[in-house]
Amino acid sequence: MSPFDDPRLTAMGLIAEVHAGLSARMNPVFQAAGLSWIDFETLIRLSRSPEQRLRMTDLATQTGLSTSGVTRVVDRLERESLVARMACPTDRRASYAVLTDAGRERLSDVLPRHLADIDDCYTTLLDDDERATFLSALRKMRDVVRPGATAGAAAERECTTPA
User: Fold this and answer.
1) Residue 163 has what pLDDT?
2) pLDDT of residue 155
3) Which of 13, 88, 89, 155 is deepest in the core (most CB within 10 A)?
4) Which residues contact 113 (CB under 8 A, 6 or more apart)?
5) Which CATH number fits domain 22-145: 3.40.1190.20, 1.10.1900.20, 1.10.10.10, 1.25.40.20?
6) Is there a contact between 58 and 67 (Cβ–Cβ < 8 Å)?
7) Where are the alpha helices (H) located in the chain, listed in sequence order?
8) What are 106-128's pLDDT values in tens digits?
9) Coil, strand, or helix at residue 33?
10) Distances from the Cα of 23 to the Cαs of 17, 37, 122, 141, 146, in angstroms?
């Protein structure tokens, strides 16, 4: 067998093709709502986190952005009132990004179309067992390539006063 026919290359090619196709399908939905993919990713991660907030460092780790990159995204979302910053009075080094009511509303506007796209491209294509196996495989791969993807998801929250 030629090294060019290695099934590992096929697997990685399929992953890249699916990612590109999903991005092309979903980006227009986000853009119509005035969001980029990373804006949506940031808002959805905050919405699914305890108290709908994350430490900025955990948000950077979860999104795969640098600390300066996540700061720029949060700055932009804050200008649109979709996210607020909250300082932690017990740890001056800690800063949180918090989903606002406007951020929840924007997500609520985007989610019906986004979920319909997910159904079209994923949910309706696989049966229950296939979806469970697929999710398990994705989590195993994610834990290797992005071990911090769930950073701060279950962390204790001692700060409650918005800055």
Assistant:
1) 40
2) 53
3) 88
4) 29
5) 1.10.10.10
6) no
7) 7-32, 37-47, 56-63, 67-79, 101-121, 128-145
8) 999 999 999 999 999 999 999 99
9) coil
10) 10, 8, 14, 19, 19
